[in-house]
Amino acid sequence: MSRLPVAAFAALVVATVGAFFVTQHLKVTTPLIQGAPSPVPAAIDPVNGVRGSSEPGSCQVLRDGVLAPVNYRQTYVTFYLQHQPDHVAVYIVDSGGTIVRTIRSNYNFKRIDQRNPPGAFVWNGKEDNGQYAPDGTYYYRVVLIGQSRTVQINKPITVTTTLPRPVVTRVSPSLISPVPAGGSAGASATSSRTTIHYSGVNGVSNQVTVLRTDLPGGPRQVFSFGIPHHGNTAVWNGRIHGVPAPAGTYLLGLRVIDAACHVGSFPAESPPVLGTRPHAGVTVRYLAAEVPNTPVAAGSTSTVYVDSRKHPYHWALRRVGHRAVLSQGTSDTFTLGVPMPAGGPGAYYLTLTYGAYRTVVPLIASAPATATPRNILVVLPALSWQGLNPVDDDGDGLPDTLPDGGPIVLARPLVGGLPADFVDEAALLGVLDGAGFRYDLTTDLGLLADPGLLARHRGVVLAGSEHWLPGALRSQLRSYVQGGGHVLSLGTDSLRRGVTISGGQARGPTAPAAVDAFGARPGATVTGNRSLVIKFSDPLGLFSTTSGVFSGLPRFQPTVPPAGVSASVAGVTAQQPVIAGFPVGRGTVVELGLDDLGMLTTRSSDFRALLARLWRLLGS
User: Fold this and answer.
1) Among 90, 187, 268, 424, which has the minimal tally of Cβ within 10 Å of its Cβ?
2) Cβ contacts of residue 58 below 8 Å, gap of 6+?
3) β-pairing, 248-257 with 205-212?
């Protein structure tokens, strides 16, 4: 038998087997579909997803070199066939491989190497039963019907309807002093930066937001910076756009955008709710001082707590209305003893400086305990000073003040230095000193601590707005007047709110009452007034030494005396009294709805005459 046919048959077998393996290799190694198919977007919220221009810029995709918006309520994929035309079916399968939605059942690709498919395969997040697919991971599955081949696109689709919930769990430390450019914190200085501890930050775009919360108008974002997609801490160096942050109260928040373009924020509320975000606040401080809320006796030492961030500082003491420095020195201690001048009561400015930082705070001296009481007691509103003092007592990143509901700690630094109204209160004291009027001096908190103080004086001047009046002090003042004492009340929005003082805190401020502690009815504050204030009635003789006409009152609060009393009244109209005097029991109350009587008396002879007349009435 010839060997040739056998050799030919063997060669044919080898070629057939080789062709089979080549074909199988091509089928295995050459993709059946092309076009880098990936779901766009890769995560969707079919229920509440954003779409179009409402989405943040970080959610947009690059198309032809331009950022374009995306509909995050659906996803799509495009591809083309690699080898030959075919009919295809496109499905959505869950992570277990079960088909949940049929996108196309018999789509005809007519052309080979179609680089621009005629359409996209869109999934709106619903299953074949019309219900939304539950949160989870899904895939596109493509079946080439003619070739009996199945291809699963291995890039997943995430369906999520849950918003990211980032949380700042702790900020440490909560009090910092950022270092100026080129400066160094030094071994003895306190921290210049703070570490933010957080959870729930796993989005595609993550930021720390810095909100300043102690400015008028409410919290505002002043800075932000990016943080990694994963992790649980970040550091803020206390700078805003490279410059040390101003002294103030800050809330450190988070903003997270996940793959489905959900935005999650901390705090979730806007504006933030007081006390609901503990340990997320940081106070930036360079120099501040805590002064006593009650007066110290003249000739003794006043203890002032100075936070200069451990830097040496200079201090100087002046009496209000005078330029002469009475005492001064340099210190680097937290506790500063300031010698108060002997001789009598008075109000003083304590100036503290280090480097470029400066603050001025008030110090109050009362008469020595052995001194004979003077006829008139002047009371300064320390409770109002602290009630409006924007200090973050509890570290939640929001100032604790009585207008915001409190509670507040009474022993705390005056972060803004002098209280806003102290300029006028000091001007009034300067006028009294210049006129030779003799008086004793205390604060409302000092009066509360010494209930017997009222009985030792014939008249009382409430020398500023008493925005909050503890119940015990309210009762003392009413009893004092009904028993024959005289009270002059200055300021606006005064004597209408209660508050509880206990445990070194003021808490539970009440809403303003319709009438004040003496039964008068305050009206709405008037601004932009150009009319003269004239006398309408004067049975008490308040205006006997004046012309009865007062000008220069662009801002005042009308105060209507209690009904049925014989009152001395001067105002823009008889129904808008600016000055009202009326009897209460055997005593007299005079209310002036003015925040700036001290300044007015420095430039108006009529107001100086009125003050002199009131002084005689109070001391009679």
Assistant:
1) 187
2) 204, 205, 257
3) antiparallel
Asked if residue 142 lies in contact with residue 79, where contact means CB atoms within 8 angstroms, the answer is yes
What is residue 181's predicted lDDT score, i.e. its pLDDT?
A: 54
CA distance 429 to 348: 10
Q: What is the pLDDT of residue 116?
A: 56
The count of other CB atoms within 10 Å of the CB of residue 545 is 14
Instruction: Find out whether 487 and 480 touch, Cβ atoms under 8 Å.
Output: yes
**Domains of the chain by start residue, with CATH:** 29-159 (2.60.40), 167-284 (2.60.40), 287-357 (2.60.40), 373-619 (3.40.50.880)
Report d(CA 399, CA 392) in Å as an integer: 4
**What is the DSSP annotation of 320-351?**
TT-----EEEEE--SEEEEEPPSSS-EEEEEE
Cα distances (Å, whole numbers) of residue 489 to 3, 129, 141, 237, 495: 132, 76, 82, 48, 9
In Å, how far from its chain's centre is CA 309? 23
The three-state (H, E, C) secondary structure of 101-145, written as one string: EEEEEEEEECCCCCCCCCCCEEECCECCCCCECCCEEEEEEEEEC
Cα separation of 98 and 111, whole Å? Answer: 30
Which positions ≥6 away from 378 have C-beta within 8 Å?
A: 429, 432, 439, 440, 441, 442, 460, 461, 463
Query: What does pTM read for this prediction?
Result: 0.84
Q: pLDDT tens-digit profile of 132-178?
A: 999 999 999 999 998 899 999 999 999 999 999 999 999 999 999 99
Contact predicate 379/345, CB 8 Å: no
Paired tokens of 132: 């939304």
Report d(CA 587, CA 583) in Å as an integer. 6
- Low-confidence residues in the chain, pLDDT < 70: 1-32, 34-36, 53-55, 57, 62-65, 111-119, 180-190, 274-276
Residue 276 has what pLDDT?
Answer: 67
Q: Which residue has the tokens 């805003």?
A: 240
